[in-house]
Design brief:
The structure is a homodimer of 145-residue chains. Chain A has 145 residues and is mostly helical. Chain A is built from 6 helices and 4 strands. Bound molecules: FE2/S2 (inorganic) cluster (FES) (2 copies). One FE2/S2 (inorganic) cluster binds next to α5 of chain B.
Chain lengths: 145, 145
DNA sequence: TTATAATGATACCAGATCGGTATCAATCAA
DNA sequence: TTGATTGATACCGATCTGGTATCATTATAA
């Protein structure tokens, strides 16, 4: 099944949660885990990835927590996916062209590249500001039916 | 790395090869493996998958071999991908919506679905007739530099 | 100073997947 | 009968996956 990993899905939930909080406020991994129903230890691992990717800022200590490193208008779904998955390749030969021994004659290659490019463009078109506006709740139970 | 499996790449090569052969002629797994540089046993496994998916027709015995089940104008990249990978889900929650416990409030869900849909549409837009016309050679060495 | 609560960094685990190989049976033409 | 083909499995080691656990580090607050 051509799909992102579970962790990447969780990461999108984490960023969406942060985008829904008031600007400047900090959330803790524990809070996010409970509210967004993600295993606590996984949130920790995901936060590490997102932090080294530069998408979020973390603060240690008693009053520590997590906050977005940039305004949600400038964080796209593509960035989250690539922070967790690595490159959106679609086919490895789009990233390492020398692995296909048929390279000059292989006409499928162009197709993979084209489709990959528009896939990336579509992922980059989605900002978390847009997702946050779309009726999200700052804590999910508020609007749950 | 968000990518199809190696087998799926091979499968595309196999179908492209068949699309480049004269209509009605049969290729053997051995030939395809050598010409398209795929491990022989893998071609066998891939052929099985493609056959049960209805994309190719196989014939056993001495003069046996493999041929397309339909004209290449009617075989798309999407069909090949889904024959090998299963559904193009992008995120599992687009296929099994009940696994996301935040379902009604999760605004990311729509994004996954939309992007998945256009990805599928783009894969479905590519026919192997088009790929075959695009300068492919019936055996790759012919045009290799 | 001490207690507490948070992140950083690893290490570990069982199970699934991946890429590849191997084997034997069934089929068909020569 | 022989040989070449596909069908169907079974197997292998390596890697990935989803999840858990542990200890160190940092910072706030009593
Ligand atoms: S170059 Fe990508 S499949 Fe050949
Ligand atoms: S429904 Fe897909 S991530 Fe929530």
């Amino acid at each position: 099944m051509l799909t992102i990993s579970r962790e990447t899905d969780y990461a999108a939930r984490v960023i969406l949660h942060l985008a829904l909080q008031p600007t400047g406020s900090r959330s803790t991994a524990r809070q996010i885990a409970e509210l967004r129903i993600i295993p606590r230890a996984l949130v920790r691992r995901i936060v590490t990835r997102l932090a080294t990717a530069g998408l979020i800022t973390t603060a240690r200590g008693g009053d520590g927590g997590i906050t977005l490193a940039r305004p949600p208008t400038e964080i796209t779904l593509l960035e989250v996916v690539e922070a967790l998955e690595g490159p959106v390749a679609l086919n490895i030969c789009t990233v390492e062209p020398n692995i296909c021994p048929l390279m000059p004659a292989c006409t499928v290659h162009e197709a993979w590249v084209d489709i990959r490019d528009t896939l990336r463009a579509n992922l980059a078109r989605i900002t978390f500001a847009a997702l946050a506006q779309k009726g999200g709740a700052s804590s999910p139970d508020t609007t749950a039916r």
